Amino acid sequence: MITSLRDAVAELVHDGDTLALEGFTHLIPHAAGHEIIRQQRRNLHVVRMTPDMVYDQLIGAGCVTKLTFSWGGNPGVGSLQRFRDAVENQWPHPLEIEEHSHAGMATRYAAGAAGLPFGMLRGYVGTDLPKHTTTIKTVQCPFTGEVLAAVPAINPDVGIIHAQRADRSGNVQIWGLLGVQKEAVLASTRSIVTVEEIVDELPAVPGAIVLPAWVVSAVCHVPGGAHPSFAMGFSVRDNAFYKAWDAISKDRDAFTTWIDKHVVGTADFAEYRESVGF
Amino acid sequence: MAEYTTDELMIVNAARQLGALAAAGKSRCFVGIGLPSTAANLARRLYPVEPVLIYESGCIGSKPTRLPLSIGDGELAETSDAVVSVPEIFAYWLQAGRVDIGFLSGAQLDRYANINSTVIGSYESPKTRLPGAGGAPEIAASAGAVMVIMRQSARAFVERCDFRTSFGYGGGKGDRERFGLRGGGPKWVITDLALMEPDPDTCELVVVALHPGITRDQVVAATGWAVRFADDLETTAEPTSGELDTLRRLQPA
Prior knowledge:
The complex is a heterodimer of chains A (278) and B (253). Chain A is of the alpha/beta class and 278 residues long. Helices cover 33% and strands 23% of the residues of chain A.
């Protein structure tokens, strides 16, 4: 249950898996993404509403063959350079994409968490997305006759999130911007949660949710593990790091040098923190 | 006369519109980061009826003291009336029709305010891969009305979008109704040169006002279709020093 991130990834993440490392600007599991790069997982199908820096790193490091997503950018900064290079120039290899809207992806996660085969929404109407994405279809309401968009459930092999804290039994507490953290874990067959701290007893926090230990496969104590994303109550978003990523990621050699030095060349997230200095 | 940037000009014009809408009972704004968030936060400080700021990260009724840099800044959650999950913000709030005003922008916009934020070139082998849809398709479909804020150029204001990421008026009047869209669609396009609004009879965007010092020729040159001008073409009021001072005090965190 409570284990090192290295052991959790070694045991739970396999080549060819479908993974969701989720976080809607908050609680993004960067440390877990780095460990997947270190352990050289390949042929992954990665799912995320807002693939940003950590997905850019996974794509550029050659771990990913398919991306399912709804918005791929560096929030507040601009393009996601490694993602663009993969789509535009097939570097380091071709990237298959399955593209949705945020509302569609959220619906897919909720259906996955609910154990339903699909979810529905008023969505995609009049757009070009259904022409290119085969997982957007329609369904007719049996009560009103209204035609709605239907999207299949997302059920990743492994759901991976960062959270604020867990207790020693592995019950996980999350607050602030909740994103699809709960849905990503409940929709997945296996799950890994990295946390800021492990405590004897979870204190009450306004608006917090708890994922019971029995829906989580592994809890790993990784302070700062969302950086440069953040964990409300523990850290703030490192906006300067997001801005700096643009220049690092724009150039293939600069990117590779950075990944080799700070991720592949470090033993774990604690060493990575020293290496990049935060 | 006060000095101002074109961003400040667009923000002030958007804020004025939001102030008027809030006074008329249309106060709930689904805001993206960047110019819309800045405009909505400016309107909160300038007008007696404050817009209600809703962010797709799940924040409802945010009252940030500083401008957020991302929709996930902690400040937004800490100052909100409510924080909900992402499935909930899209399903219970946007889709259910609880948003009065949505904001959109993109790389390309056509004369019927359809917008592309997905690719330049073909989808299969794009010249430029853009971030993609995000919340845009359902904001365009479900918000009571949509405000577009976008820099105007012939490269961006095009005869035909390479990809339709969000639906404005499709091919013209009646298309929204044919598709069963519940929201009202784009009502205002605010650019660095002009204000445009859909013609009530055709839904084609028409220039209704020029910003101070901007000529018709400049707008024509910066539009990829044969753009039309309203008969009673107006000039927008210069940003006042009061508006600009308030805006400049809203520095990013």
